[in-house]
C-alpha cells in the first residue's frame, strides 16, 4: 500500500472525492491504510461482541463512521482551540470526546462528508490531524506545564515546536516501518513517561551546570514490552531537532519491515545495543560526536499527572482535574474552555495520564473553579482510585478490542471508593481492551489486559488477564503476571478490593503497592 502511494497523498482524495462520494466511494487501501496518516480510523460497528474480534474480516468490523484523532503536540491548547474541538464533537461527533494518554483528543461518529469542514475549523485555530496515526511520527509528548514551574529542569517548548514545525507532514518521515512515539520534556516529574517511547529527551544538568537532555531510545509496550535505554549522550537544546531526526532516520533506514509485529524501533535496539546505535547516530546522521552526559535525576513525585494545585512561576496556579477515565463530551470541553477564560488565563493542557489542566488560575478563584468543574463530574481532588484509573477506547469503538473498558473503569473506581474509603496510597489501575497496551497495562500497579474468560458456569464472557506491580522510575519494571490469573469483568471490583485489603494489612511502613507486589507471596495476589 505504501509503495503504491504515500500516506500523505490521501488528503486530496478525501477532500475532492470521498467527501462528495460518501463512504462507499473510498478505496479500500485508503480506508484501512492511508487515511490513518490523517488521524482517521473506521470505528467498530455496533453490536459485535469481543469474541468476534479475531474472527471477522476487517470489512465486517468496519462501521461507516470514523474515529478522528486531533494531535496536540505538548498537550497545550488555548481556550479557542479547545472550544473548536468541543464544537466539532458536539456538531459532528454525537458529543463524544476522549482525552488520551498521549495528549490527543479523539472524536467519534465522524462521517467522511464532514471531514473537510472539520479540518478547516481545526486548521483555522492552529490544530491538525496530520500524522496523528499511521506509520509516522505520532504526537510528540511534552510536559503540559513546560516553562511554567520552578521545578523544571529546563523548558522544552521551543525544541519540541521546532521538531513539529520542521518534520510533521514531511514525506522524508511519512513511510516509517511502523508508528514512532516521541517525548521531549524538561519536567522534573517525568510526566511524559520517556521510558516507553521510541525516543525520549529528558531534562538533565551536566557536570558543568549546563542544562540539556539525556537521550533514551527503543521503548515500547504492546505484546513485546521493552523499556527504552540511555545512549549516554548529552544533547544541547539547539541539537534536539537534529538528534530527533537522526533517531527517526535510523528507524526509517534500518528498522525491520518484513513483519509488522517486528517493525518497531525496540527490536532494532535490542539487536544493536545502545553502543552501536549511538555510533550510527553520530557517524551517519549527525556527523559529529555527542559528549557523554549524566542520567536524569529521580522524579520529584511518582504520579506524573499534574492533578491538583501546582504553583506556577508567575504566582498563579495550575489546576489539574480527572475526567472519567479520559471520557468527556464536547459539551464538557466547551464548559472547560469557558472556565479557563473566566477563571484562568485562557490556556488548557492535556496530560499523558488522560487528565486536563487549567493554567493561570488566581488563588482567589481556585475554589470557584473547583466547584464549577465538579458540577461536570471533573474532579480536582479525586479519590486515589479515580485519579489512578485509565482506560483505552475499548469495545465501544475499537475494532481490535475484546472487552469494554471505559464503562468498566467507571464502575470499578466508583465501587472501590465505596468499599475502601480509607485507602490512602497512590494507585494506578490501567484497563486495556486487548493486548496492544494503549492504556499501558504492563506499567500499572494493577493492569488489566482484555480477553475472553470462562465464568463459574463455564460460559465465555468478557474478562481480563491481570498484571501486578508495574512501575516507572528507579528500577522500572513491568507488572508480574501469573499463570491462569484471569478475572471476569464483573468480578474486577471484588478482585481489586481483595488484593488491596491484603496490601493494607501486610505493607511495611512507606511501602508502595508495586514494592509490596515484588515481595508478595503468590497466594496474596490470587
TrEMBL record:
Write down the required cofactor(s): [4Fe-4S] cluster
Which parts of the sequence belong to the Nitrite/sulphite reductase 4Fe-4S domain?
133-287, 386-524
What highest taxon heads this organism's lineage? Answer: Bacteria
Ranges for domain Nitrite/Sulfite reductase ferredoxin-like come to 62-123, 311-374
The reaction(s) catalysed by this protein are: hydrogen sulfide + 6 oxidized [2Fe-2S]-[ferredoxin] + 3 H2O = sulfite + 6 reduced [2Fe-2S]-[ferredoxin] + 7 H(+)
Keywords from the named record:
4Fe-4S, Heme, Iron, Iron-sulfur, Metal-binding, Oxidoreductase, Thioether bond
What residue ranges are annotated as transmembrane? none
**This enzyme's EC code(s):** 1.8.7.1
Coiled-coil region(s): none
The protein's matches in InterPro entries, at most eight in alphabetical order, are given as: NIR_SIR_4Fe-4S, NiRdtase/SiRdtase_haem-b_fer, Nit/Sulf_reduc_fer-like_dom_sf, NO2/SO3_Rdtase_4Fe4S_dom, NO2/SO3_Rdtase_4Fe4S_sf, NO2/SO3_Rdtase_FeS/sirohaem_BS
Function of the protein: Catalyzes the reduction of sulfite to sulfide, a step in the biosynthesis of sulfur-containing amino acids and cofactors.
Q: Which family does it belong to?
A: Belongs to the nitrite and sulfite reductase 4Fe-4S domain family.
What is the name attached to this protein's record?
assimilatory sulfite reductase (ferredoxin)
The gene is sirA
Amino acid at each position: 500500500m505504501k509503495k503504491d502511494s504515500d500516506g500523505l497523498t490521501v488528503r486530496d482524495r478525501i477532500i475532492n472525492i470521498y467527501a462528495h462520494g460518501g463512504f462507499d466511494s473510498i478505496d479500500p487501501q485508503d480506508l484501512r491504510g492511508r487515511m490513518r496518516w490523517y488521524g482517521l480510523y473506521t470505528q467498530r460497528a455496533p453490536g459485535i461482541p469481543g469474541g468476534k474480534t479475531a474472527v471477522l474480516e476487517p470489512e465486517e468490523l468496519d462501521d461507516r463512521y470514523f474515529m478522528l484523532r486531533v494531535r496536540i503536540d505538548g498537550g497545550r491548547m488555548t481556550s479557542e482551540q479547545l472550544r473548536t474541538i468541543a464544537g466539532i464533537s458536539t456538531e459532528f461527533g454525537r458529543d463524544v470526546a476522549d482525552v488520551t494518554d498521549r495528549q490527543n483528543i479523539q472524536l467519534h461518529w465522524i462521517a467522511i462528508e464532514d471531514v473537510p469542514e472539520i479540518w478547516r475549523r481545526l486548521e483555522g485555530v492552529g490544530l491538525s490531524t496530520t500524522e496523528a496515526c499511521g506509520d509516522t511520527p505520532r504526537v510528540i509528548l511534552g510536559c503540559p506545564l513546560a516553562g511554567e514551574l520552578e521545578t523544571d529542569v529546563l523548558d522544552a517548548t521551543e525544541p519540541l515546536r521546532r521538531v513539529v514545525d520542521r518534520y510533521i507532514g514531511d514525506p522524508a518521515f511519512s513511510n516509517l516501518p511502523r508508528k514512532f512515539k516521541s517525548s521531549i520534556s524538561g519536567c522534573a516529574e517525568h510526566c511524559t513517561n520517556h521510558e516507553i517511547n521510541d525516543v525520549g529527551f529528558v531534562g538533565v544538568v551536566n557536570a558543568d551546570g549546563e542544562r540539556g537532555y539525556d537521550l533514551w531510545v527503543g521503548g515500547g509496550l504492546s505484546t513485546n514490552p521493552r523499556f527504552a535505554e540511555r545512549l549516554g549522550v548529552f544533547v544541547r537544546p539547539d541539537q534536539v531537532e537534529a538528534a530527533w531526526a537522526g533517531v527517526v532516520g535510523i528507524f526509517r533506514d534500518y528498522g525491520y519491515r518484513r513483519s509488522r509485529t517486528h517493525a518497531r524501533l525496540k527490536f532494532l535496539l535490542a539487536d544493536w545495543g545502545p553502543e552501536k546505535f549511538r555510533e550510527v547516530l553520530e557517524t551517519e546522521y549527525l556527523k559529529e560526536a555527542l559528549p557523554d552526559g549524566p542520567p536524569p535525576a529521580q522524579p520529584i513525585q511518582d504520579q506524573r499527572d499534574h492533578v491538583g494545585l501546582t504553583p506556577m512561576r508567575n504566582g498563579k496556579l495550575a489546576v489539574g482535574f480527572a475526567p472519567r477515565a479520559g471520557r468527556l463530551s464536547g459539551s464538557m470541553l466547551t464548559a472547560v474552555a469557558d472556565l479557563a477564560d473566566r477563571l484562568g488565563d485562557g490556556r488548557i493542557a492535556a496530560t499523558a495520564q488522560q487528565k486536563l489542566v487549567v493554567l493561570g488560575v488566581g488563588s482567589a478563584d481556585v475554589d470557584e473553579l473547583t466547584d464549577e468543574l465538579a458540577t461536570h463530574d471533573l474532579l480536582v481532588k479525586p479519590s486515589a482510585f479515580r485519579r489512578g484509573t485509565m482506560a483505552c477506547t475499548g469495545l465501544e469503538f475499537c475494532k481490535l478490542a475484546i472487552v469494554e473498558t471505559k464503562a468498566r473503569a467507571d464502575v470499578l473506581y466508583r465501587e472501590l471508593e465505596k468499599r475502601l474509603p480509607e485507602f490512602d496510597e497512590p494507585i494506578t489501575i490501567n484497563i486495556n481492551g486487548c493486548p496492544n497496551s494503549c492504556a499501558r497495562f504492563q506499567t500499572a500497579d494493577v493492569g488489566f489486559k482484555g480477553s475472553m474468560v470462562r465464568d463459574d458456569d463455564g460460559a465465555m464472557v468478557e474478562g481480563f488477564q491481570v498484571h501486578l506491580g508495574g512501575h516507572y522510575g528507579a528500577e522500572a519494571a513491568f507488572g508480574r503476571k501469573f499463570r491462569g490469573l484471569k478475572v471476569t469483568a464483573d468480578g474486577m471490583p471484588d478482585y481489586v478490593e481483595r488484593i488491596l485489603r491484603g496490601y493494607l494489612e501486610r505493607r511495611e511502613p512507606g511501602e508502595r503497592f508495586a514494592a509490596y507486589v515484588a515481595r508478595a507471596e503468590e497466594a496474596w495476589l490470587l
